[in-house]
């Protein structure tokens, strides 16, 4: 069945390029995941806060390695992409990426998390800014959505500081361990203007 509009991006727009390393700010960068990142991933999903909001845990090191290994394939089929957030020592302190990539619509869903020791330093907001710039320039996307539980105040602060406006509330649209949660929907489109760098924060993200 033919489309009546031209796809926003042709198939192959992502797969034709290598997943890039992205500088966030001095001492902070985004890079593709590696097999030896599995211990950091296992530690992340052992964190009760990450388990609460991402509704996922890893049973063992093999599952952590499988988690890091999946992203190469998902980039190639252009459905998702994930980066390790790393500091000067190149060890992951968090994750940011895109899910539900739709090239025909030029859209994707944003995700992020941080290990406990990385919180409170503006890292999530800075990483979100780098991801957004890449998405709207080199990737050519038009719209990014960001959804989180209305009870997740820390994620809401990151989204707001990253310039993602609140568009509404989807009632009882995601089930967490404690039941159904209303979800804030934030979004940013390419025409919203330049992304402002945020100062390093002392409040916890």
Could you describe the 3D structure shown?
This protein has one domain (22-192): Gcn5-related N-acetyltransferase (GNAT) (Aminopeptidase), CATH 3.40.630. It is built from five helices and eight strands, in the order E-E-H-H-H-E-E-E-H-E-H-E-E. It has helices spanning 38-45, 48-54, 61-76, 123-136, 153-161; strands spanning 22-25, 28-31, 81-87, 92-102, 107-114, 143-149, 165-176, 179-189. Strands 1-2-3-4-5-6-8-7 form an eight-stranded mixed β-sheet, sandwiched between helices. Helix 4 (123-136) links the parallel strand 5 and strand 6 (143-149). The radius of gyration is 17 Å and the shape is globular.
Gyration radius over CA: 17 Å
Order of strands in the sheet with the most strands? 1-2-3-4-5-6-8-7
Write the element-wise H/E pattern from the N-terminal end onward.
Answer: EEHHHEEEHEHEE
- CATH topological fold name: Aminopeptidase
Instruction: Find the structural class using helix and strand composition.
Output: alpha+beta
Taken as a percent bin, the fraction of beta residues is: 25-35%
The CATH homology group name: Gcn5-related N-acetyltransferase (GNAT)
List keywords for this structure.
globular, 31% strand, alpha+beta, disordered C terminus, 8-stranded mixed beta sheet, 205 residues, single chain, Aminopeptidase
Could you outline the blueprint of secondary structure elements for this entry?
Blueprint: E1 22-25, E2 28-31, H1 38-45, H2 48-54, H3 61-76, E3 81-87, E4 92-102, E5 107-114, H4 123-136, E6 143-149, H5 153-161, E7 165-176, E8 179-189
Parallel strand pairs: 5-6
Antiparallel strand pairs: 1-2, 2-3, 3-4, 4-5, 6-8, 7-8
